Amino acid sequence: xxxxxxxxxxxxxxxxxxxxxxxxxxxxxxxxxxxxxxxxxxxxxxxxxxxxxxxxxxxxxxxxxxxxxxxxxxxxxxxxxxxxxxxxxxxxxxxxxxxxxxxxxxxxxxxxxxxxxxxxxxxxxxxxxxxxxxxxxxxxx
Length: 141
Description:
This protein has about 140 residues and is an alpha+beta fold. It has helices at about 1-55, 135-140; strands spanning about 70-75, 90, 100-105, 105-110, 115-120, 125-130.
């Protein structure tokens, strides 16, 4: 019986140490995914810009998502001719690790703790972190 008590105590200590590590791993994975998304978005903007220049279009894409009601974000402007970005895009959501759209040029990333705001500037093609300073530092190197 005493051995069983010691086993239960040891398992309790191990669980107390392991559970916070798993929580941190999930948060780290969501931040790594967001960093990857940001890099892909920025790369897609530049790739689309280069393709447009070849076709004689001198301006950056005007918006990154056709409408604020779109369920897939960062797919392109939806115009004619359509200027495409990511295929299939990033699914819009409201949970931790999800992106959402506020306006044609404003997007948010929900880290679970904070919401970080990004803006797209069609004048120069920049996709910039503008609020959530702690999260900006974590998301944009």
